[in-house]
Amino acid sequence: MAVSESDILRSEVRWAMIVGVAVAVIFAAVIYTGIELHVNPPSNIETIDPKALHLSNEFTESNLGTRVEPEGRITTRIVATQFAFDPPCVVVPANEPVTLRLTTPDVIHGILVTGTNVNTMIVPGYVAQVHTVFTKTGDLLMPCHEYCGLGHSQMWATVRVVPRESFRPDAEGRVACD
Amino acid sequence: MSVESEAEDRPWQVRASVIVVAIVVVAALLGFVVLPVVQGRSAGVDAFSAICRALGLQAGSPAVRQPVSATRAEPVSLVAWTEEVIARLHNPNEENGSDLAANICASCHGADGVSPDPAFPHMAGQSAFAIYKQLHDFKNGARGNEIMASVVEQLDDEQMADIAAHFAYFTKGALDPTTPVTNDPAIVRLVERGITARGLPACASCHGAHAGGPIETPTLAGQRHEYLAAQLRAFAKGERRNDIYHRMRDIATKLTDSEIEELAAYYAGIGLYQRIK
Amino acid sequence: MLFLLLGRSALAGKTRSEDTGLSQADLDTVMEEVPKGALALSASAVLLLLCGWFFVYFFIFVPRGTVG
Q1: Which pLDDT score is estimated for C18?
Q2: What's the total number of domains in chain C?
């Protein structure tokens, strides 16, 4: 036999080292972005009663949409229902940290915002939360991406990313599409 | 495999196991301890909370302070489908329900729930959930109507449940066809398919039998034309606002006047009342 | 695994070598070259995959805005 056992072993060890280095390099890149850019898996374990969602303080109808909170944080709250988002259009400023908080009173929905990394499931009983910074201005499509029933394909909303100077909160800190 | 190669393999098995365990331990330490603590420090989250958040034991991200909401609830309807309400609707006091219905409802909505006057909606064909929700909303002012407000004023929750159960003929949407019985292509499209570009879901996706939407979704088939059109207009103008999370307000705002008329005519014209009787 | 397969095919080739007139020495020379080619192929595949991952991560994922 032309290839000896020790040759095979040596090649396998070398090969394993190459794979180990590749994995280590990817690990390093993930850790670097984790520390420098605060990238995180957007998971959030936070429960809420879906039966009484409309009676809750935070997800009451008048509190939905974008609001600059008293401490300066920009939070956008959206409720996904069969088969629409409330509100159907939200305004957010570009290049500012924004927190999206979403939940649903009925079935599992999901969202992604086109051209961004925002992508989450919305599960009844839980609050989905994504912290992000929108970099491009314009109207971004936010479709429901988790089949939720017969009206699923008509279920979409708009995320309007505006330059910082056009983002004008009212006295309560709220900003809405016209 | 020979005895020799088995003996040769054993140290490798040990080494491989150690390496795999080491990778898991290092990754867990990095992901659940090092990264959250470092991220939390710059965001002002203490180390313990940061680790709990990374593990999913606390709400929020270790890298961002958790937002708070100081808003007080302003619900558009006080009805919540708790177990008690659902149980009452399923096990009503039937005698009480028929007495109340005969005394206070029958003059306008008909003894069998079929209203004699076009101004008043039929009750026949609705589910107990649909009727209970509206009665409760009239009483609490979530839905404004002077006549109904004065009628339901003296009723308590249990009496409203009994009345709702008395008129309940079917479950949600049992009469609403999933496939339109008309040849008007525009109405067929709205009822059956919806219009994606306008964000209009199909009527049948909630009002049809076994469809989506909340349990209180009313049956539309055979309802009074005048009533259906008036409700759609009231939703569009924001005069009626007890549809939780703008479900109908958003849709009605997008409909044109002629679409409202045609949809009301379509649903009113579905001659299912002969079948009920 | 790859090398074991190659070893087997070399054995299979031995019977045919009688017909083609190849000597065992010729075969050994060829077999010395084969692992190098296989190594080059798999190494470039892994490198391409790694480059693809970094391209997507730093030129698509990171510019799209961080999440967390």
Answers
A1: 56
A2: 1
Six-digit token pair at A144?
Answer: 């429901």
Highest average pLDDT, of A86-95, B171-180, B213-222, C18-27, comes from: A86-95
Backbone φ and ψ for B126, nearest 5 degrees, come out as -85, 160
Q: How big is the CA angle at A38 (ends A32 and A40), to the nearest 5 degrees?
A: 95
Q: B178-204, pLDDT tens digit by residue?
A: 777 777 888 889 998 999 999 999 999
Query: What stretch of H or E contains C53?
Result: helix C24-56
What angle do helix axes B83-90 and B157-167 make, rounded to 10 degrees?
Answer: 50
User: A71: which chain B residues are within 8 Å (Cβ-Cβ)?
Assistant: 68
- ipTM for this prediction: 0.87
Predicted confidence band of residue A18 (pLDDT cuts 50, 70, 90): confident
Phi and psi at A89, nearest 5°, equal -145, 130
Domain span at residue C52?
Answer: 39-63
DSSP-based three-state secondary structure for A132: strand
Q: What architecture is domain A53-175?
A: Sandwich (2.60)
Q: Cβ of C35 under 8 Å from any chain A Cβ? A: yes
Q: Please calculate the CA angle B161-B163-B164 and round it to the nearest 5 degrees.
A: 65
> What does each C-alpha distance from B212 to A114, B188, B259, B275 come to in angstroms?
26, 19, 22, 24
| d(C-alpha C63, C-alpha C59), whole Å | 6
B67·A69 Cβ contact <8 A: yes
The β-bridge partners of A67 are A75, A174
Cβ pair A44:B60 closer than 8 A: yes
B 28-47 → A contacts, CB under 8 A = 30, 35, 38-39, 42-43
pLDDT higher than 60, residue C6? no
| Pairing mode, strands A74-81 and A65-68 | antiparallel
List the chains bordering chain B where 3 or more Cβ pairs fall under 8 Å: A, C
State whether C66 and A2 contact (CB < 8 Å): no
- Nearest-Cα distance to chain A for C36, in Å, is 10
Domains located in chain B, CATH noted: 13-64 (no CATH), 77-169 (1.10.760.10), 170-277 (1.10.760.10)
Are residues A140 and A117 in contact, defined by beta-carbon separation less than 8 angstroms? Answer: no
